[in-house]
Amino acid sequence: MKNLSFMSLESNQFSGVVPPELGKLVNLKTLILSGNKLVGTLPEALAQIKDLKDFRVSDNNLNGTVPEFMGNWTQLQNLELYATGLQGPIPLAIFQLEKLSDLRIADMPGPEFQLPKKPIERKYLVLRNINLTGTIPENAWKVEKTLDLTFNKLVGEIPPNTIQRQFTF
């Protein structure tokens, strides 16, 4: 199994903790654990999966905060953290991952925080109900397909150039 590159255990009834042994699967490119009854924190051992491109752990009963090591997954293209049970803050390094084109985080309590000022060029950017505050930086409008910032504490004006964008839902 050490050459395994794809693992999806999505939409089952798995319970218990995320096994630290998954970190030994260093060739994984995709790890999908969404839709289970997993508890506990995300193990630090997952940091060993250096070339991970797709990580989804939505709809579980995890606890703790979003791990800092996710910001070191430089090959990551898709990150989905909906209703995980995890709490913020979301490590700012995640927003700086250059290959990350699909970032979806929702229903995550935690301290208030603002989007980074550095450009966020994504195809999909969903940051729903995660305690975002302040204004929406101009760079947030560089999203190609979907921009969802609902149920936050954002203020300010909607820039006029957003009308020129062709978002799809």
UniProtKB/TrEMBL annotation:
Sorted UniProt keywords: Leucine-rich repeat, Repeat
Localization per record: Membrane
InterPro entries the record matches: Leu-rich_rpt, LRR_dom_sf, LRR_Rcpt-Like_S/T_Kinase
Top-level lineage group: Eukaryota
Family matches, as Gene3D superfamilies: Ribonuclease Inhibitor (3.80.10.10)
Membrane topology, from the record: Single-pass type I membrane protein
Repeat keyword on record: yes
Cellular-component GO terms for this entry: membrane
Name of the protein in question: Leucine-rich repeat family protein
Organism: Populus trichocarpa
